[in-house]
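Sequence design from tokenized structure. All designs in this work follow the same two-part layout: the structure record, then the generated sequence. An example of the structure record is given first.
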């Protein structure tokens, strides 16, 4: 494998470095594409009820989400120092094979951000193709490279998409099996699952929507994400600048995906924090819908939907929601961080250092 790499890529670009570049580009791309709607989406939805002028800004931040596969492809390419044209070619291939659209009656319909794993895979394949042929096309590069690299990688990606999607579906099936268990056990397992999934290449929203996760299960999923977010915030503030920590806290947990892949020990504090939060959620009867599960407190989607299922006074509902989505996850994260770094000494804080390069 290494010999093959050395024949195609520069000597310092080992398989490990290659993977890290793909993960880093993906992490930044997700933040760029999802943060606008994560921060402003629910706010604009509320403001629309006051004035229709906010309809257009809402459409804009929602539309930006659909460009995630393109952004991810471009930023992955830039990690490898490719030219602007080569980066756009990579982004085009990534989008073509992402599954972010469907062809219905001859019309292209956007359906989401697609399958992130297949997006990464297609971008990686496109980069390999570019490295193989970019210096062999001469003056025909501008004509042939988009066809060979974007078209070739896109075709391969479209062919792999059904198989990669089955992996996501298998995870959904496993999570769905937890819904048959006793409520507290179910809440713990679903909370842990989504706490881990949110920092992986798999989409929590896609999983929740695919299996129709609602009621207490939806609430547990959101609280697991909140626990992971708080754990990342608590850990990030020790080693990263405030911008990174704020981004994570506002919903960009997947930007820590490279850290999770390189340091799987991070799973342990996430499990601890998610367990505590899941237990609390089951006793507080935090619920949600399939459409709201998978967001956590990002954009306040989880909290707003949880309040719709509460029967108390508005003030009491707000207090319970605040405790469930913010206070308990924060306390759980602090406990998990203390146990893992001070008591068990499983890792050093630098495993959470974010490196965008």
């Amino acid at each position: 494998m290494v010999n093959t790499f050395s024949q195609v890529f520069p000597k310092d670009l080992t398989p490990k470095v290659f993977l890290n570049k793909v993960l880093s580009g993906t992490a930044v791309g997700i933040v760029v594409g999802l943060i606008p709607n994560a921060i402003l989406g629910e706010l604009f939805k509320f403001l629309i009820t006051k004035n229709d002028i906010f309809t257009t800004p809402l459409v804009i931040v929602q539309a930006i989400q659909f460009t995630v596969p393109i952004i991810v492809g471009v930023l992955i390419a830039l990690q490898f120092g490719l030219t602007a044209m080569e980066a756009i070619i990579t982004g085009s291939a990534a989008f073509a094979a992402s599954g972010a659209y469907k062809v219905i009656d001859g019309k292209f319909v956007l359906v989401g951000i697609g399958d992130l794993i297949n997006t990464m895979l297609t971008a990686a394949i496109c980069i390999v193709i570019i490295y193989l042929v970019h210096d062999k096309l001469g003056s025909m590069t501008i004509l042939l490279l988009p066809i060979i690299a974007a078209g070739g990688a896109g075709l391969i990606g479209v062919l792999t998409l059904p198989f990669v999607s089955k992996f996501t579906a298998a995870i959904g099936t496993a999570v769905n099996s937890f819904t048959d268990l006793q409520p507290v056990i179910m809440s713990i397992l679903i909370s842990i699952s989504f706490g881990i999934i949110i920092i992986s290449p798999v989409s929590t929203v896609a999983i929740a929507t695919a299996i129709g996760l609602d009621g207490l299960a939806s609430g547990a999923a959101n609280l697991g994400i909140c626990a992971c977010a708080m754990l990342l915030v608590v850990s990030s503030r020790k080693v990263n600048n405030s911008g990174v920590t704020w981004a994570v806290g506002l919903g960009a947990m997947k930007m820590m995906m490279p850290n999770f892949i390189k340091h799987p020990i991070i799973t342990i504090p996430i499990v601890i924090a998610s367990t505590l939060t899941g237990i609390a959620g089951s006793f507080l009867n935090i619920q949600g819908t399939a459409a709201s599960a998978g967001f956590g407190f990002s954009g306040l989607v989880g909290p707003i939907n949880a309040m719709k299922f509460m029967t108390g006074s508005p003030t009491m509902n707000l207090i319970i929601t605040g405790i469930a989505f913010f206070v308990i996850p924060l306390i759980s994260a602090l406990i998990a961080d203390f146990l893992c770094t001070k008591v068990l000494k499983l890792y050093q804080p630098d495993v959470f250092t974010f490196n965008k390069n």
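The beta strands are 101-104, 107-110. We note this feature because it recurs in several other targets discussed in the main text.
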